[in-house]
Specification:
6 strands; four-stranded antiparallel sheet; 121 residues; alpha+beta
C-alpha cells in the first residue's frame, strides 16, 4: 500500500537521493554520521570531507529518494555540537560548473601564453 501511494507523489525536481551536508563539526565520525542520518532510512554511502577545502562537509547517499527528502526536511538546521547543519540536495551541474570555469580559464591562459597575448595594453 505504501509503495502504491508513493508512485502518485510528485517530488520537486531538485529532490535527489544524494544530500550535500555543510557546517559539520570537523571531528565528526562516520559512526556519528550514520547515527544521525540513518534514522531516516537505509544509507548506501556517506563520504565525509577530509581535505582543507572539504572539511566540515559530507555527501550522504540514501537508497530511497523519499528517505533522502525526509532527512533533508528534518535535519536542515539540526544542532550537532553547537553547529547547525546545512542540508541540501546534491546538484551535479552546480558542482561541475565551478570546475568547468576553472578549466576554461586555465585553457584561455595557456592559449594566451602560446600566442603571446596578454591583457596589458
Amino acid at each position: 500500500m505504501a509503495m502504491q501511494r508513493r508512485q502518485n507523489v510528485r517530488l520537486p525536481p531538485e529532490v535527489n537521493r544524494i544530500l550535500y551536508v555543510r557546517n559539520l563539526p570537523y571531528k565528526i565520525t562516520a559512526e556519528e554520521m550514520y547515527d544521525i542520518f540513518g534514522k531516516y532510512g537505509a544509507i548506501r554511502q556517506i563520504r565525509v570531507g577530509y581535505t582543507p577545502e572539504t572539511k566540515g562537509t559530507a555527501y550522504v547517499i540514501y537508497e530511497d529518494i523519499f528517505d533522502a527528502k525526509n532527512a533533508c526536511d528534518h535535519l536542515s538546521g539540526f544542532n550537532v555540537c553547537n553547529r547547525y547543519l546545512v542540508v541540501l540536495y546534491y546538484q551535479a551541474n552546480r558542482a561541475f560548473k565551478k570546475m568547468d570555469q576553472t578549466k576554461k580559464k586555465d585553457e584561455l591562459d595557456r592559449l594566451k601564453a602560446k600566442y603571446g597575448l596578454n591583457d596589458k595594453k
